[in-house]
Design a protein that fits this description.
It is globular and about 75 Å long. The strands form four sheets. A seven-stranded mixed β-sheet has the order 4-10-9-8-7-5-6, sandwiched between helices. It is an alpha/beta fold and about 425 residues long. The chain is built from 14 helices and 15 strands. The structure holds pyridoxal-5'-phosphate. The site of pyridoxal-5'-phosphate (PLP) has 12 residues, from α5 and α6.
């Protein structure tokens, strides 16, 4: 372990002083306890904080609606900032930058699970020979439900069509060699490999580039659920040649509760006239859209998958949130800070709580984002009680059945002092003097 850290408040404060991104915290509203004290918010893995400029942006759109009504869409006869018809365009561009994609490959629309279904409509086309889907056994329930209902939709059964990779007995993490072995075992029948970028329970990062390569060698499509990866770790979706990806934007992107979600389709699948897709009027040529022709003329980008006109009020916080990522200089400097915060929290936990807390998230920085999945191993303490005490002490974190407390120091708004104070609180709970 590095010796650049020590176990004092002074060290935390020093780290904050040296942090070039420390001022980004001021772009967010910090949550408060019932008696008005600022919380230690460590649950950005579940819902990111409010970017302050959202309020002004929201008011601007409310005013536009109030004053202009339908003219807010096109704004041709008024000098309009951000007309609604193209409101999503800069957002798509920023989102593409955040995911290592080309602008043509990324669009924000719908919710994550809706996008997952739309992607499977296009990319899961089972036939007699190829019909299996590989997922992980502990996949997020919504992903399970989406996959199993798609399998049934094609008249197949999960018993036949679902291939599941699990950690080995007694282990928490999924081994890459076990994914590889399953892909090889089922290579003649495998239609789709669908894995998360980061596993939501353990925080394990999957080697996405390698998985794409293996999946493609087997002749399968490879898609990712990046709910816990976007805004957390650097991604190179285009270069990795992932076929598709979906994600939500309310976790590390800070797009607000139920924020409009993201969707990636690799360039190689764009502009294919015979591709299978569910279509709507927002996917057709923008030049002729309002001529109301009934012949679909797809936009030559992933925008062709859009069904409905944009939900402006859920785009608004996205604009504010992505502007903060731009202020930060993108994901690379954020990840640099994040790695330091991860090493710092590792250090503090090892120094102070080695016999009380087990971190089930992988040790290696390559295999983890900012989430820590903590298991309480202190004698006579139940994890859920510890979680409740943390919440009562002004720490926002979350509890995942059966026995994990998840916390995530988010480099956009969490300080090193937050991390230090969190460990101090955890110590008073687990090692009361
Ligand atoms: C958060 C999350 C979801 C939530 O799906 P919604 O459609 O946004 O409600 C789904 N899958 C994963 C892996 C998640 O982490």
């Amino acid at each position: 372990m590095t010796n650049t850290f020590n176990n004092s408040l002074g060290c935390a404060q020093q780290l904050d002083q040296e942090d070039p991104l420390a001022s980004l915290r001021d772009e967010f509203e910090m949550t408060v306890t019932p008696n008005g004290e600022e919380e230690i918010y460590l649950v950005g893995n579940s819902l990111g904080l409010l970017p302050l400029s959202s309020r002004d942006y929201m008011n601007a759109e409310m005013n536009k609606w109030g004053r202009l009504g339908v003219r807010g869409h096109a704004g041709t006869d008024r000098d309009l900032d951000h007309p609604w018809a193209s409101y999503h365009e800069p957002i798509n561009k920023q989102m593409a930058a955040l995911t290592g994609a080309k602008r043509e490959e990324v669009v924000v629309m719908n919710g994550l699970t809706v996008n997952l279904h739309l992607m499977m409509v296009t990319f899961y086309r089972p036939n007699e020979k190829r019909y299996k889907i590989l997922i992980e056994g502990h996949a997020f329930p919504s992903d399970h439900f989406a996959v199993e209902s798609q399998i049934r939709h094609h008249g197949l059964s999960s018993e036949d069509a679902l291939v599941v990779v699990n950690p080995r007995p007694g282990e928490e993490l999924i081994r890459y060699e076990d994914i590889a072995a399953l892909i090889e075992e089922h290579q003649d029948e495998l239609a789709l490999v669908l894995l998360p970028g980061i596993q939501y329970y353990t925080g394990q990062v999957f080697p996405m580039a390698d998985i794409v390569e293996l999946g493609h060698q087997a002749g399968a499509i490879v898609g990712f659920d990046l709910a816990h990866a976007v805004g957390n770790i650097p991604l190179e979706l285009h270069d990795w040649s992932a076929d598709f990806a979906v994600w939500c934007n309310y976790k590390y992107v800070n797009g607000g509760p139920g924020a409009i979600a993201g969707c990636f389709v690799h360039e190689q699948h764009l502009n294919k006239p015979d591709i299978n897709r569910f279509e709507g009027w927002w996917g057709t040529n923008t030049e002729t859209r309002f001529e109301m022709e009934t012949v679909f003329d797809p936009i030559p980008t992933v925008d062709a998958w859009q069904l409905s006109n944009s939900s402006i009020f859920s785009m608004v916080p996205m604009r504010a949130a992505l502007n903060v990522f731009d202020l930060a200089g993108g994901i690379t400097p954020l990840r640099e800070k994040s790695e330091k915060q991860i090493r710092y929290l590792d250090f503090l936990l090892e120094e102070n709580l080695l016999d009380e807390i087990e971190v089930i998230t992988p040790k290696d920085l390559q295999e983890r984002g900012c989430q820590f999945s903590l298991r309480v191993i202190a004698e006579g303490k139940e994890g859920q009680d510890v979680f409740n005490e943390l919440e009562e002490s002004g720490v926002s974190c979350d509890w995942r059945y059966p026995d994990v407390i998840r916390i995530a120091p988010v480099p956009l708004y969490n300080s090193f002092t937050d991390i230090f104070r969190f460990v101090e609180i955890l110590k008073t709970i687990l090692r009361p003097e």
